[in-house]
Every structure is written in C-alpha cells, then in structure tokens.
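testing teh design pipeline on a random one, pls ignore if ur not involved
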C-alpha cells in the first residue's frame, strides 16, 4: 500500500440506511473526478469504499437487542429491530462490491463477527477492516488473519498492550497490516484528537502502514494527519448530512468530500523530499525577481568599474554580488547607462 499518494477510504458504514441504492449513490459520489481549478489538473480521487457487516446473532446481549430504541434516528422500536433494518445481506454487499469495482474503487469490509466471513463465499474484499471495538476480539482477529486478506486495524479504544496483542495474533498469519490512529468519540472533540499519536506509531510500528481514521467535524484534521505522515485516511461519507441516522451529521457531504480529497491530493504533491534545492519551475521567477549587479551611474566605454559604481537591481539574469570580483576592476567595452544590469560580455 506504500506509495506516493495517500490511500483514501470513503466509509459508508451504516449511512446507506439499509438501502443498496443509497450505498451505490454514495459510491458514485466517492468516485467523482476531482480537479484543481488553480492549475487545471485532474487529481486522483478516492481509492476505496468501505462497508460494515454485522452478524446480529453475535452482536449484543438479548436484553440490549430488546431494549426500546425510540428516537429521531431509530429505524425500529427496539435496538435489535433498528439494527436489522440497517443490515445488508451478503448478496447485497456483493452487489455494492460490484458497483464499487465498476467505478475503479477498492472495496474494504469491516467484519464484526466470525459469522460474517460467510460473505467470502461470494467475493473477496481488497482489505478487511477491524473496528476499534474489536481490537481485543482476538478470536475474530485470528479468523480474519487466516484468510490472508490484508487487514486494517483502528486503535480508537486501545492502548499499547491491546494493540500489541492484536498485532501478535494477526502476524502469526501474515504481515500485510495497517494501523490507523483513531479516537472513538463521535464526533471527536479537537482536544482528544492527539495527532502526535501518528508520530508515535510511525516510530514504534513503522514496519506497518500507518494512517488515521477520522471522526472530527470538517476536513482540517485529516489533511493535517497526512502532513503528520499518515498514509491512509478513512472518513465517513454521506449524501446529505441531514439524513436520518446517527453517523450522518458527523460525515462529509458532497462538497466536503470534494474539498477533502482535493486538499489531500494537493498536499500529496506538496510534501516532497527532505532536502533543499532549486525547483526547475522557479527559474522564471528567479530570473525576474532576483538581484544582479547594475550600474548606479552612467559608465562610458573604457571606464574601469569601481565598487562605488555598482549596486543591485532586478532582473536576476546577471552577475550576483558574491561574484562582484568578476565586475569590479574590469573595463567597460560599451557605454552602459545608469541603472542597467552589467553583463559579462560588456566588460573585459
């Protein structure tokens, strides 16, 4: 997954509200072309879309599934009924997968129970995601790792021990692992983001791909995460932040998606390499704006140039002050008016 661009995952989660068609529309949104209007360049869009699959028989206790769930975001009278409405079948996930592939996107699946592995009879996701809450679900991690499909884990509810335990289980089967810094607060308050965790992960787990799963409002934090070294960004996406559903308001709508992808792709180009050098495209500005040695008075042919005869003016295509000895003490071959650049072919 290491490359010169950030791997961007548009997370649908449950924002499809139980509808395959809404899921497809969100994929259409994710796959829209992105353009940099300043330079007129077409930018790389998102890389992947992500869905979540639960096995409700392995989700919550019976008492929790049966508890009343009456609120503006509820799709059922009990929490179990609510969850049932929001679940897509294996076959529906396959349909969404095919639509994502038709748009050139990778497909990532968060599988929340071992029973969800039944989906793999229909298709193979490009990557499997482990939700923050399941980082300590070691039997699930073992089952996912046994598939040999690349795995992404989020650290939203984990400390170092929990993360290390999870890594130990997964890497018994393979090393294709990515770790996302995450804070399981929805939305995440800025004081809790702690983007410096990305630096910690890079230093201590740098043999894996490090990224950031974002639950903040807006786009500044994921863009800053890329500047901090994150190579994966995961962000919730929706068609309309006013739609019914607990995750909609904290997700990015169409305009937010465009701005985040645009800004991260521009940042991808901007990061560069750890050295200082003259960029080729600055040559025109360098010639126009830098200073060159110039006359501060009229110099007639035959005049020997003294230090007090020169100063610095633009453009920058003449002799620099560091090389003033190439000018001072030389004889003028042709008349040079005041406040004109002194070029080497004018002196001997």
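output:
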């Amino acid at each position: 997954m290491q490359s010169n661009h950030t791997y961007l995952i548009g997370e649908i989660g449950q924002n499809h509200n139980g509808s395959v068609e809404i899921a497809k529309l969100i994929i259409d949104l994710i796959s829209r072309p992105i353009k940099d209007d300043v330079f007129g360049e077409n930018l790389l869009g998102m890389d992947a879309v992500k869905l979540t699959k639960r096995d409700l028989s392995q989700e919550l206790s019976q008492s929790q599934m049966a508890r009343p769930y009456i609120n503006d975001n509820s799709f059922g009278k009990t929490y179990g009924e609510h969850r049932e409405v929001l679940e897509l079948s294996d076959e529906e996930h396959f349909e969404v997968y095919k639509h994502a592939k038709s748009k050139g996107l990778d497909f990532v699946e968060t599988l929340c129970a071992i029973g969800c592995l039944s989906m793999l009879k229909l298709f193979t996701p490009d990557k499997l995601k482990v939700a923050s809450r399941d980082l300590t679900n070691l039997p699930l991690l073992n089952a996912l790792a046994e598939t040999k499909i690349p795995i992404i884990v989020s650290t939203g509810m984990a400390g170092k021990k929990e993360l290390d335990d999870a890594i130990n289980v997964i890497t018994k089967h393979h090393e294709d692992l990515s770790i996302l810094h995450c804070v399981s607060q929805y939305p995440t308050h800025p004081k809790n983001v702690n983007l410096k965790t990305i630096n910690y992960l890079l230093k201590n787990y740098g043999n894996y791909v490090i990224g950031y799963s974002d639950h903040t409002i807006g786009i500044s934090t994921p863009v800053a995460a890329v500047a901090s070294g994150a190579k994966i960004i995961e962000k919730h996406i929706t068609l309309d932040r006013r739609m019914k559903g607990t995750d909609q308001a904290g997700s990015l709508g169409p305009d937010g998606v465009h701005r985040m992808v645009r800004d991260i792709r521009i940042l991808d180009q901007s990061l560069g390499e750890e050295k200082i050098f003259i960029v080729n495209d600055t040559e025109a500005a360098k010639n126009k704006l830098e200073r060159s040695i110039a006359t501060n008075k009229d110099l007639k042919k035959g005049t020997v140039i003294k230090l007090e005869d020169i100063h610095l003016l633009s453009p920058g295509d003449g002799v620099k002050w560091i090389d003033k000895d190439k000018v001072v003490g030389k004889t003028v071959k042709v008349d040079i008016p005041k406040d004109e650049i002194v070029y080497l072919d004018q002196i001997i």
